[in-house]
Specification:
327 residues; mainly beta; Immunoglobulin-like; eight-stranded mixed sheet; seven-stranded antiparallel sheet; 8% helix; elongated
């Protein structure tokens, strides 16, 4: 036996295996270091905003302003702007994402006015965005919580001139946020919408005439149906001439829009040479009613008048107050 070579076989060194393990450890350290650096340098970001909705309004000749509250979506307006309840208002909702503990402030990229354009063409107007109005209206500054996500709402004021064509007007307000490390987010465009509708006009085409009657020894009533024009009596009164006629009205406004009709307090006083009578009013249409596709509605007003026993002779006159409005 060759003792020189016996048991002299040397095991292989795991150089390749050791080298791979070290490389894997190094790669892991590099990946962790990169991820840590990425998180620290994270820029804030903004998600897609919902629409800033100013609703539906009527604008008077002088124009005016309308303001949406960021927290509630409620609106306030000046005297020449008249909101309806046909279209719900809302502030824009935006989700911001960023580094926990950092604060951020809202900015716009606009250097001046933005434009609201009528759908289908035929009109536009420019408006200053005014101060950006969020739930924190003084500073418009928020702080990212531990989740790294903040939901805020945006609103503001529109300045609307008079004389614009009715229609849906749309615009956008570009905004971004900048955090406390001076890192800026992407810019998103907040959609803005408002609907302008035609003002209502009311025309009195005929006065209300309850006819001529002879009072009796007992009290009575005279009724004039506003829809048919048919006149009836009850109690101790007698017709002395042809039937009376209902008052006739025509109203024009926004096509197919709902309107309300008010007959004052529902009654009016008729005053004669020596006495009065009470006329209880009624309309030929129920309120609210709807304008036609051409934006027109016609209605009549009649009622019931109470006549006392031996009511003094004479002409009894009064005032009929009719008001139409968008709900």
């Amino acid at each position: 036996m060759d003792y020189k070579n016996a048991g002299s076989a040397r095991p292989r060194k795991p150089a390749r295996k050791t080298g791979l393990a070290w490389m894997g450890f190094r790669l892991l350290v590099l990946v962790l270091a990169t991820m840590s650096a990425h998180l620290y340098a994270q820029n804030p970001s903004l998600g897609a905003p919902t629409t800033l909705e100013y609703g539906e309004i009527v604008v008077g000749a002088g124009g005016g302003t309308i303001t949406t509250d960021a927290a509630t979506g409620a609106i306030t307006s000046t005297s020449n702007v008249f909101p309806t309840n046909a279209l719900a208002t809302s502030s824009a909702r935006i989700v911001a994402t960023g580094r926990s503990g950092r604060s951020f402030t809202i900015y716009t990229t606009l250097g001046g006015n933005f434009t609201m354009t009528r759908s289908g063409g035929g009109g536009s107007f420019s408006s200053s965005p005014g101060p950006i109005n969020s739930e924190n209206p003084v500073t418009n500054t928020f702080t990212f919580p531990a989740s790294g996500t903040v939901t805020f709402h945006l609103a503001g004021t529109l300045s609307i001139p008079g004389g614009l064509a009715a229609g849906d007007y749309n615009g956008t307000l570009p905004i971004f946020i900048r955090d406390s490390t001076n890192r800026s987010s992407n810019t998103v465009s907040v959609p803005i919408h408002i609907r302008l509708i035609a003002p209502l006009t009311l025309t009195n085409n005929a006065d209300l005439d309850m006819g001529t009657v002879v009072p009796g020894a007992t009290a009575g009533t005279v009724t004039l149906n506003p829809g048919t024009g048919v006149q009836t009596k009850a109690g101790g009164v007698v017709f002395a001439s042809a039937s009376g006629t209902p008052a006739a009205f025509a109203v024009t406004g926004a096509p197919s829009h709902s309107i309300s009709i008010s007959l004052g307090g529902g009654t009016t006083t008729l005053t004669g040479p020596s006495g009065t009578m009470t006329l209880t009013l009624s309309s030929s249409v129920t309120s609210p009613t709807t304008l036609s596709a051409g934006g027109v509605a016609n209605f009549a007003v009649g009622g019931v008048v109470g006549i006392a026993a031996n009511q003094p002779d004479g002409n009894y006159v009064g005032t009929l107050t009719v008001t139409v409005a968008y709900p």
